[in-house]
Amino acid sequence: MIRLIATALAALLALASPAAAQSTTRIKDISSIQGVRDNQLVGYGLIIGLQGTGDTLRNSPFTEQAMQSMLDRMGINVQGLSLRAKNVAAVAVTANLPAFAGLGTRIDVTIASLGDATSLRGGTLLVTPLNGADGVTYAVAQGQIVSGIQITGQAETLSQGVPTAGRIANGALVERQIPGQLSELPEILIDLTNPDFRTAALMADVINAYTQARYGKRLARERDLRTVVVQRPPHSGTARFIAEIGELRITPDTPAKVVVDQRTGTVVIGRNVQVSTFAVTQGNLTVQVTEAPEVSQPEPYTFGETVVVPRTNIQADESGGPIGIVRGTNLQQLVNGLNRFGLKPSDIISILQAVKTSGALQAELVFQ
């Protein structure tokens, strides 16, 4: 038992060494805990106090209806009256409710215009309930909005940001908590950001080494390529335990993949990409087409017509390149081999396609 604990502690010290820290990643940076997530909220509200840049009520009847409903709740009867206000705008209000947010917690809200308002700058959002997907109100938003600006003259327009959208920092108060607490989780499910069987197995091994040394039990097991299941240790707080295993370090395994963005000419080659030895040559074919039409003029005192005769000159120039052998057993040798040719990104993309077709590229080729 003592030897087993000593072995586990030695493994943990090796993970914490500077040399290992340069090539490893914390578990918290490549995964998330199931059930610990944000919840999206949405609401419909009114912004008042605009300087003539609000909705045109004739074109946005929902804004007028919202104004009438608001005034009715305040005891002001405006039924049957034609409203002509230009300083009011209907908006959609969205927010993310953090996990385990308590009552009275302030959260940020984002606002976007629903009607034909030209600017929301300087407006104030009235009390707006924010509902979840279940229709329950979890927060209430209110405050002065910060948005972009747009100044229009007769010959020029100056814009900064989006004038019909904005944000209120700490603009909403949480009025109801999401059901469920961290301590009620029967077991901890860790989801990998980039699912992989080997990474999941490595994560389970590292967690087991830690829990064996600290609690005397192996508490983790990999369920599939995405999820690692960890049992809650006895007599230990769940939050503290999650914080402890989040600091453990592993070396994630990455699939052999080459990603090509043909729009920008960007090529990203993964660390585990392997290539077999292949020979390649690269040359450019330049075709130049020159149009030099000639005018055919009839002889004097004849009944001929002046016509334009087309004359086309086509020249083709193919610059040949030497054939070279690329021996790429790893990423560095592959890059060095391609760099010897002085290729452009478009040429590298063409070569990678041909190498993949020939079967020499032992990786997945992804085009975006």
UniProtKB/TrEMBL annotation:
InterPro entries found in the cross-reference section: Flag_FlgI
Signal peptide span: 1-21
Coiled-coil stretches: none
Top-level taxonomic group: Bacteria
GO cellular component, one term: bacterial-type flagellum basal body, distal rod, P ring
GO molecular-function terms, A-Z: structural molecule activity
GO biological process: bacterial-type flagellum-dependent cell motility
Subcellular location(s) of the protein: Bacterial flagellum basal body
Keywords assigned by UniProt, alphabetized: Bacterial flagellum, Cell projection, Cilium, Flagellum, Periplasm, Signal
UniProt KW Hydrolase keyword: no
Pfam families in the record: FlgI
Principal localisation: other
Protein family according to the UniProt entry: Belongs to the FlgI family.
NCBIfam families, per database record: PRK05303.1, PRK12789.1
Assembly and interaction partners: The basal body constitutes a major portion of the flagellar organelle and consists of four rings (L,P,S, and M) mounted on a central rod.
Role description: Assembles around the rod to form the L-ring and probably protects the motor/basal body from shearing forces during rotation.
UniProt protein name: Flagellar P-ring protein
Species this chain originates from: Xanthobacter flavus
Species classification: Bacteria, Pseudomonadati, Pseudomonadota, Alphaproteobacteria, Hyphomicrobiales
